[in-house]
Amino acid sequence: MGRGRQKAKATKQARDIKYFSPATDYSALQRELDAKGHSSSSYAEGPPEPDYSDYADKYADTYVEEEEDGTRRIG
Description:
With 75 residues, this protein is mainly alpha-helical. Helix content is 47%, strand content 5%. A hairpin with a 5-residue loop joins β1 and β2 (72-73).
């Protein structure tokens, strides 16, 4: 196939995809959205945040922090 014919075919396919509008079943969409609202998941709110407070105290002097006057302090 030549380049012109190949480009024309690609253009036709792109146009077909662009203007394709399938029939939307809104009642099925509503059922799906309702079902997701009632499902109970073990991570409904997301996984629990780990507690890093022990590490914050242990390694507090290791990292660079900005002082109030804008200078940096290296621990």
